[in-house]
Amino acid sequence: MKKTIYDYIDSIKKLPIKDKYLKEDILIEDFLVNECDNIKVYYAPHNEYINYKAKIFIVGITPGFQQMSTSIKEARILLEENENIEVIQYKCKVKGRFSGSLRKNIINMLDYIKLNHALNLKSCSELFYEKDYLLHTFSLIPYSVFVKGKNYTGHTPKLINNKFLMSYVYENFLCELNELENVIIIPLGKAVEEVLNKLSEENTINGDNILRGFPHPSGANVNRLIQLEEKKENMMKFIKNKFQ
C-alpha cells in the first residue's frame, strides 16, 4: 500500500523549520520506507496529488534528494500553518516536481520539439504554473531512492532487472496511470523508457501513447541536446499525430 503524508505527519512535525534540509536531517529512520542490500527507499510527499484532467504525463525514475527536501520543507511549513492535508499534497507536488535546473531543462526541451505549439501555449513553462491543469507528473518509484547514499539514476542496479525496485512500478505507477485517461506519456530518459516499453510489451499500458526518444534532462547528461536533436523529427511527428 502506498505511503502518504498521513503516515508521516508526526515525523514531519518533529523536524525544525529550516530554509533547507540536509541529508542528515531527513535521510533518517523516521522516513525510511524500505531497504534491500545497499538500496534505501525514503518517503517524500511529492507524488500524492493526482491531476485527473491532465493531457501530458511526465514520468521520472524517482524523486531525487532535492525534490525530497523541497517537498518535505513545504509540508513542514504548511503543517505548522494547519493547512488542509489535500492542499498540502497539491502544494508539495507543485513545489517539488522537477524543481531547480531540471525543470528549466525540461521546459526548454519540450519547447524545442514544439509541444507548446500543439497545446497552444507560448511555452511549456505554463504547464508548471498557470496551465498546470494540463500536466501530471509522477515517478516510476514514488519515493526517493538512494544507492550507497547517492541519488538512484535507474542504472546501477538496472531498474528493469531489479525485482525489489520494479515492485514499486507495478504496485504504484500502474495504479497512477490507470487514473488518467488517454494521456501522452513522456518518459525522462532511457531507463524510464525501457521500463515503459516492457510494460507495453506486457500489455499493461498502451505503448501508442509513449513519446519515445526524450533524453534525460539532467545537467549530468551532457549529451542531452545532441540526443534531442537526433530524435527531434520523430518526436515532433508523434506530437502532431496526437493533436490532429
* End-to-end CA span: 39 Å
> β content, as a range?
5-15%
Class from secondary-structure proportions: alpha/beta
**What is the number of E strands?**
7
Give the overall form.
Answer: globular
In short:
Helices cover 41% and strands 12% of the residues. With 244 residues, it is α/β, with parallel strands linked by helices. The chain has a domain at 22-97 and 134-222.
Walkthrough of the structure:
With 244 residues, this protein is α/β, with parallel strands linked by helices. The chain has a domain at 22-97 and 134-222. Helix content is 41%, strand content 12%. It contains nine helices and seven strands. The protein has helices at residues 9-13, 23-26, 65-80, 85-96, 101-112, 115-118, 163-178, 190-201, 224-242; strands at 32-36, 39-42, 56-60, 135-139, 144-147, 150-151, 184-187. Strands 1-2-5-6 form a four-stranded antiparallel β-sheet. A three-stranded parallel β-sheet has the order 4-3-7. It is globular. The mean pLDDT is 95.
Annotation keywords:
single chain, 244 residues, alpha/beta, 3-stranded parallel beta sheet, 7 strands, globular, Uracil-DNA_glycosylase-like_sf
Topology:
Elements (H helix, E strand, L loop, with lengths): L8 H5 L9 H4 L5 E5 L2 E4 L13 E5 L4 H16 L4 H12 L4 H12 L2 H4 L16 E5 L4 E4 L2 E2 L11 H16 L5 E4 L2 H12 L22 H19 L2
Parallel strand pairs: 3-4, 3-7
Antiparallel strand pairs: 1-2, 2-5, 5-6
Helix pairs in contact: 3-4
